[in-house]
Amino acid sequence: MNDFDEASLSVEEMLKDIEKEKKINKIERIEELIVRHIRAHIIIDLKDNFYNAHIKRSDRLSYDDIAKKWNVSSKYVKNIAEETGYTI
Fold first, then answer.
1. What count of Cα atoms within 13 Å lies in the side-chain half-sphere of residue 22?
2. E strand or H helix that includes residue 61
3. What one-character-per-residue DSSP string does 15-52 give?
4. Which run of H or of E encompasses 72?
5. SS3 content of the chain, % helix, strand, coil (to 5)
6. What is residue 73's predicted lDDT score, i.e. its pLDDT?
7. How confident is the model at residue 79 (pLDDT cuts 50, 70, 90)?
């Protein structure tokens, strides 16, 4: 194998590595979008729940209910509630 062939193989391997990295970055961006999307919906649920609690409506949800709805932990929901001010 001559130097040109070795360089070609090296470039091909580099291109494969770059493609793998692009795929990984794309997956990470999708994961971030999903997390932000779920977080936004949790905040909407907390906000609705907060206002329902203040107008004495009976259709209030607990942190556990919201956590089950979005398949996250109650602690995560509680932390978001404390961050946003929509605590029950």
1. 6
2. none
3. HHHHHHHHHHHHHHHHHHHHHHHHHHHHHHHHHHHHHH
4. none
5. 80, 0, 20
6. 93
7. very high
Contacts (Cβ under 8 Å, ≥6 apart) of 87 = 50, 78, 81
**d(C-alpha 8, C-alpha 50), whole Å:** 62
Rounded to whole angstroms, what are the CA distances from 61 to 17, 23, 38, 67? 48, 39, 17, 10
pLDDT digits (tens, 9 = 90+) for 9-68: 777 888 888 888 888 888 999 999 999 999 999 999 999 888 888 787 777 788 999 999
- Look at the block and give the residue holding tokens 């949800």: 61
Does the predicted TM-score (pTM) go above 0.85?
no
Which residue is it, tokens 């070795």?
Answer: 6
Start-to-end C-alpha separation, the chain: 71
